[in-house]
Amino acid sequence: MSHPALTQLRALRYFEEIPPLDAAQLDWLLLEDSMTKRFEQQGKQVTVTLIQEGFVTADAVQDELPLLPQEPRYWLREILLCADGEPWLAGRTVVPESTLTGPELALQKMGKTPLGRYLFTSSELTRDFIEIGRNADLWGRRSRLRLSGKPLMLTELFLPASPLY
């Protein structure tokens, strides 16, 4: 199962440098904190529509492979993050199977819980980088995060209803 927003997310093309955008857009795209929390600060009820969640082979995560360890399986989670029922963001999380040990096993049980609620409560969270991408008129970003030093990739596409625009 897929969703048109996730097709657009996978079509993002990333800039080598930060593109010339206004300060408000850069504030959204370069946010280091939880996007879930930022949406809630807008006075919105944040919910997750789960599109796909489960183990996949490397073939399903070709775009992320150069940035992650080579493994036979990856945990893939694709969602829409909604604010008051309106989709504001499409998200794709790719987790190498070797990351799913200890407390990080919780990543397999996120279900309809926003990823930010888990990630940003960990004192062991670091971010290697944020890359800004674009597909047609839509902006997105991807980050390699580490939980206790173990990597995962998070890609986010800001949908037309989001306050980024």
From TrEMBL:
Indicate what this protein is called per its UniProt record. Chorismate pyruvate-lyase
Q: Which family does it belong to?
A: Belongs to the UbiC family.
Name the species this protein comes from. Leclercia pneumoniae
Enzyme Commission number, as recorded? 4.1.3.40
Q: Which gene encodes it?
A: ubiC
* Localization of this protein: Cytoplasm
Q: What are this entry's molecular-function GO terms?
A: chorismate lyase activity
Enzyme class, broadest EC rank: lyase
- Main localisation: cytoplasm
Tell me the function of this protein. Answer: Removes the pyruvyl group from chorismate, with concomitant aromatization of the ring, to provide 4-hydroxybenzoate (4HB) for the ubiquinone pathway.
